[in-house]
Design goal:
The complex is a heterodimer of chains A (260) and B (199). Chain A is of the alpha+beta class and 260 residues long. Chain A is 40% helix and 15% strand. Chain A folds into two domains: 49 residues; 161 residues, no CATH class.
Chain lengths: 260, 199
């Protein structure tokens, strides 16, 4: 493709919108340039393929053509969806303080079974770049986690360093919570390691992951859940886990494999 | 859609979803569920997948409204947006499933033992087409102007004339023309890059 093609490509891509003069110029170029002709044909073919996805029809009973079995299954599906919505919404910290304290005690008992019933699978710790399979990246420190969600939701990731300092690293400050699809490989945190790893205390690191499935969590509320001074690293882990369990849902824990 | 307009009007429903109000989510799920489920029935005979895809789609739609990705402008606009957007999300689930299963098939060392690839009632929905749909979806999502996104979606999927689009989104015809022109360049340039059409 020549520099002339590059200049005219914009016209070629919006031929439908051109005025007479520009249209004539675009058509002259298309006649003379097989590469641009082929490109335009490919773009139009893509749009043709897209048109095969019809919008949902506007109909009072979309299941008219369905069998009785499908109707029963549909009713079950809706009932399950609505039942999942009936679970209690996240509560605010001040009203749940007593419950949170009780949860801390309970957490100490259930810690070994945390992964059971977890909303995530394939949870691993490692450098995101190494986890992506980038062969050029030296397999150095443990700089993030990878996982897959069992159902779509908003992951909340807290990092606890060797001194027990807890940091909310996802959703990142100032960024809206991201809705992630089920079964997709997720790597967190996305880049900017220098920002969130600044001033980390040496020693073992722990990631705590929860998934909000009933709507986007409030980052300010999540931030407020983190203890300012927990006493010890283990206490910090327990406190954050209890808070996240209460505010978001089940928590999965992932430790740096080289320590603890 | 069963139940459409039976309780709160569309504007109130959109506002309720925007604030993630439980009543609005419930009302939306009840009104929209069967349409999405019927669509999923066309794509798979697996009852679990139908249910999963339907739930994923509805939860994602509710979340998109809560994130401000739908802007209410006039009566009919919410359900028009829903009818265009929902098939994409269901097809995205189908695509993810196809990719997963094709990877599993590829990983089989003994081809004789490989399971048959998943089939749908719609033979046009091969993996390549699903990849195209995914790319179009991603490119549309990449448009920063939500009006431009909706206008292009109406043009692409409903093949609406410009005048009808202008009426549907409640904007002057000339503004719609400008949005279409700019959006088309952005969308098609994105598709050229994503699908490597310039090879």
């Amino acid at each position: 493709m020549t520099s002339e093609c590059t200049r005219l490509r914009r016209l070629i891509l919006v031929e439908e919108e051109l005025g007479a003069q520009e249209l004539a110029e675009a058509r002259r170029h298309l006649q003379a340039c097989p590469a641009c002709r082929a490109l335009r044909a490919r773009v139009l073919a893509v749009e043709d393929a897209v048109r095969s996805v019809a919008a949902l029809p506007e109909t009072p009973d979309p299941l008219t053509a369905s069998s009785e079995v499908e109707r029963v299954q549909a009713r079950g599906s809706l009932a399950a969806l609505l039942a999942a919505q009936e679970t209690r919404p996240p509560r605010r910290w001040p009203r749940t303080l007593p419950l949170a304290l009780a949860a801390i005690v309970a957490f100490a008992l259930i810690l070994p079974t945390l992964q059971r019933g977890s909303p995530v699978r394939d949870l691993r710790v490692g450098s995101p770049l190494v986890l992506r399979g980038d062969a050029e990246t030296p397999a150095g420190g443990t700089h993030g986690v990878s996982f897959r969600l069992k159902q779509s939701g908003y992951p909340v990731l807290v990092h606890i360093d060797g001194d027990g300092a807890a940091r909310l690293i996802h959703p990142a400050a100032g960024a809206p919570p991201a809705l992630l699809a089920k079964d997709r490989l997720v790597l967190l945190p996305p880049g900017e390691e220098a920002v969130w790893r600044a001033d980390l205390a040496a020693g073992p690191e722990t990631y705590l992951l929860a998934v909000a499935t009933h709507g986007p969590p409030d980052p300010e509320h999540l931030q407020a859940l983190l203890p300012v001074a927990a006493g010890s690293r283990q206490e910090a882990i327990r406190a954050v886990t209890a808070q996240l369990s209460e505010a978001v849902g089940k928590v999965s824990r992932c430790d740096d494999p080289s320590v603890d | 859609m069963t139940g459409e307009g039976e309780r709160h009007d569309e504007r109130a429903l959109a506002a309720g979803l925007r604030s993630a109000a439980p009543w609005a989510r419930r009302e939306f799920f009840v009104a929209a569920h069967d349409a999405v489920y019927a669509y999923a029935c066309r794509l798979t005979r697996d009852a679990d997948l139908r249910r999963d895809w339907t739930h994923d789609c509805l939860l994602r739609l509710a979340a998109e409204v809560a994130e401000g990705r739908f802007v209410y402008r006039r009566p009919g606009s919410f359900w028009a947006w829903f009818r265009i957007r929902a098939p994409f999300l269901v097809l995205d689930s189908l695509r993810a499933r196809r990719r997963l299963e094709s990877r599993e098939i590829t990983a089989q060392t003994d081809a004789e033992d490989a399971p048959d690839p998943p089939s749908t009632d719609d033979p046009r929905l091969d993996l390549e087409r699903l990849e195209i749909l995914h790319a179009v979806n991603a490119c549309l999502e990449g448009l920063t102007n939500p009006d431009q996104r909706r206008i292009l979606a109406l043009l692409l999927f409903e093949e609406m004339p410009y005048e009808e689009i202008a009426a549907a989104v409640g904007r002057p015809l000339n503004t719609v023309r400008t949005d279409i022109r700019r959006g088309r360049v952005a969308l098609r340039s994105c598709l050229v890059r994503r699908l490597e059409l310039e090879r």
